[in-house]
Specification:
The protein has helices at residues 25-38, 50-58, 138-143, 147-153, 217-232, and strands spanning 3-6, 13-16, 40-43, 83-86, 89-90, 93-94, 97-98, 103-106, 118-125, 133-137, 157-161, 185-189, 191-193, 200-202, 211-212, 237-240, 247-251, 255-259, 269-275. It is an alpha+beta fold. It has 5 helices and 19 strands. It binds succinic acid (SIN).
Amino acid sequence: MIKIEPTGESLGATISNVDMANLDQSAFDEIHAAWLEHLVLRFRGQTLDDTSLAAFSRRFGKLDNAPIGRGGDYPIPDRPEITIISNIIEDGKAIGGLGNSEAVWHSDMTYVDMPPKASLLYGMEIPNTGGDTWFCNMYRVYEDLPEAMKTRIAGLRCKHDSTRTSSGSLRTGFAEQYSPEEQPGEDHPLIVRHPETSRQALYLGRRRNAYIVGMSAADSDVLLDEIWDHANASPHSWAQKWAVGDLVLWDNRCTMHRRDGFDDAERRLMHRTQVQGDIRPAT
Ligand code: SIN
C-alpha cells in the first residue's frame, strides 16, 4: 500500500512504500493522482542510479536532454537526460550547475514555447546547513489575488527572459541587456489553466527582465512588482530540507521553486531530470 502523507502546508506530500523498480500501472496512477493533488512529491530513502532515475522520470513523459556543457558534451555522456546540480569542483572544473548560491523564485524554462511539465531532483550529497529548496503553490497565489487584480491581468501576456539562469548568471551567447521588446524569450498568459486539473494558476516564470507585452517598460515594471510582491509574501510555500536519498518531483505548471544558498566549503550533489511539456501554456 502506497502511503501518502501531506506536509500540512499548502503543497507537498511524502510518499512511502513505493518500489520504484517494480511500479505497476495502478501504483503509478496513484502516484500521478497524488502529484496533481499535492504538486510536489517527496520520496525518501531512495537508492537510484541514473538508469532508474531516468526510467522513473520517463513514466511522466518524454525527457529533455541536459544542456550541453562547455566541453561540448552532456554532463554524463551515456545518460544525456541527467543534469548535474552541484557546487563540486573536480580538476579545477565545476561538475554541475548552480554552484552554492541562492536561486531566486522561478519555474523551469518558461522562456520556451512549451515549458517542461515536471522536474525530478535526487539528493546524493547534502550540506549540513542551507541548500533547502522552497516550493510555492501558484494556484493558491492566483486565488489570493484581489478580484480587481485578477480582472486587470486577465488576457495579459508576459515575456519570459531566456538570457539568465535562476542564480542570475548570463547564459552563453546573450548580451547583458536588451530592450523589453527585444528581450529573448517566449511570452505566455499571466493566468494559465492547468491542462490536467483545469485549475487556474498565476504563471510568472521569474521576475528579472520580465515584461508585460504591449505596455511601456515603466508600466510593466510597476504592475509586475505589484504581482511579485503578492507572490513573494504568499504563505503558500513549503521548504524541502534535504536528506541523502530524497527524490523530489514537482509540477512545473503550477509551482515556482527557489533554493537557499549554502556554505561552499560543503558539498551538494543532485542529479536531475526534466519531463517535456506537451502543450503551450494557455488561459
Ligand atoms: C533547481 O532550481 O532546479 C535546483 C534546485 C536546487 O538545487 O535545490
